[in-house]
UniProtKB/TrEMBL annotation:
This is Dihydroorotase. It catalyses: (S)-dihydroorotate + H2O = N-carbamoyl-L-aspartate + H(+). It comes from the Bacteria. Belongs to the metallo-dependent hydrolases superfamily. DHOase family. Class II DHOase subfamily. The gene is pyrC. One of its GO terms (cellular component) is cytosol. Binds 2 Zn(2+) ions per subunit. It holds the Pfam family Amidohydro_1. The modification N6-carboxylysine is found at residue 99. It comes from Natronocella acetinitrilica. The keyword Zinc applies. It is an enzyme of class 3 (hydrolase).
Length: 349
């Protein structure tokens, strides 16, 4: 097969940042995806409907004329997010979820939730109005090993949460373990998961053997090979509750190549191409469209995109870095040759 044509995909987990970085990263996503769920972990975090709408406008303002990329906004859940705010968010056509960051779990999560018990009424309002809860699913207690934080979250937080709120719709973001894949597959229809390219491509050896490679460092951290295999099985299974979410998370090169480097992999510049390669290597190219362009829209109860994209089999090499204004950014798979190329793609490193 020399080309694949699929419905235009959507990215159900994306960081676009703000200010000077925004204009450098948005075009990569807008070229590939019709819509993206935009994460609210800015500084300060996006905690109100008006802040989300203002951020949405800043994103739209950076788009080249004629681009019809749609940012789907989210709110950042805090201990103090009120049920009224959740109700107001649910009523906005531009807000599609509320994001739970356990305080201290990841990049810009300091304002996150310290105890989910404080959010019960807000979660009930979200359930009532059908507004999904999006999870960074890791516990943060200092005594829990970083490699166990996701599986511990399932037992301690997620399972009880689903029981307490029997109609709450939940997206378990960027799952990284066999346990998470199994939990979602055996869970109710109102539970879904996104899977990143890095967790489908790499295990922790890629990050730690033969030298420490900070550009593989993201949270939740890369796990074992058997976890990667389970995620690959889930992504390519055709199960509609697994869908594409890149978690593309830009950090300047200097902030990653540091004694205390930031967590996050930037993949927006080659995201659908990487997933195509992953699905082809798994012998499941026929299931790429479901994962990338259908399952997420159905879960979020949004129309499927009608427009198509075409990927052609043509080698191209990902730049070692992209311009970020005053700094540069090193993408996932930097310098590697990819075999699927998006029709009409222009390289603008
Ligand atoms: N995934 C990451 O490692 N980093 C994300 C935050 C997140 O999604 O947890 C970021 O904002 O940089
Ligand atoms: Zn996260
Ligand atoms: Zn993320």
């Amino acid at each position: 097969m020399d080309q694949i044509t699929i419905r235009r995909p959507d990215d159900w987990h994306l960081h676009l940042r703000d200010g000077a970085v925004l204009e450098h990263v948005v075009p990569h996503t807008a070229r590939r995806f019709a819509r993206a769920i935009v994460m609210p972990n800015l500084v300060p975090p996006v905690t109100t409907v008006s802040a989300a709408l203002a951020y949405r406008q800043r994103i739209l303002d950076t788009l080249p004329p004629g681009t019809d990329f749609k940012p789907l906004m989210t709110l950042y859940l805090t201990d103090n997010t009120s049920p009224e705010t959740a109700t107001e968010a649910a009523a906005s056509e531009h807000i599609h979820g509320v994001k739970l960051y356990p305080a201290g779990a990841t990049t810009n999560s300091d304002a996150g939730v310290t105890d989910l018990a404080r959010c019960e009424d807000t979660l009930a309002a979200m359930a009532e109005h059908g507004l999904p809860l999006l999870l960074h699913g890791e516990v943060t207690h200092g005594d829990v090993d970083i490699f166990d934080r996701e599986s511990r979250f399932i037992d301690q937080t997620l399972e009880p949460l689903l029981q307490r709120h029997p109609s709450l719709r939940v997206v378990f973001e960027h799952i990284t373990t066999a346990q998470a894949a199994e939990f979602v597959a055996s869970g109710p229809d109102r539970l879904a998961a996104t899977i990143t390219p890095q967790h489908l491509l790499y295990n922790r050896n890629h990050m730690l053997v033969g030298g420490i490679r900070p550009h593989y460092y993201c949270l939740p951290i890369l796990k074992r090979e058997r976890d990667r295999e389970a995620l690959l099985d889930a992504a390519t299974s055709g199960n509609p509750r697994f869908f594409l979410g890149t978690d593309s998370a830009p950090h300047a090169r200097g902030a990653k190549e540091s004694a205390c480097g930031c967590a996050g992999c930037f993949s927006a510049c080659a995201a659908i191409e990487l997933y195509a390669e992953i699905f082809e290597d798994a012998g499941r190219l026929d299931r790429l469209e479901g994962f990338a362009s259908i399952h997420g829209a159905d879960f979020y109860q949004l129309p499927r995109n009608e427009e198509l994209i075409t990927l052609r089999r043509q080698d191209w090499t990902l730049p070692g870095e992209y311009n970020l204004g005053n700094d540069t950014i090193v993408p996932l798979a930097a310098g590697q040759t990819l075999r699927w190329r998006l029709d009409g793609q222009q390289d603008t490193p």
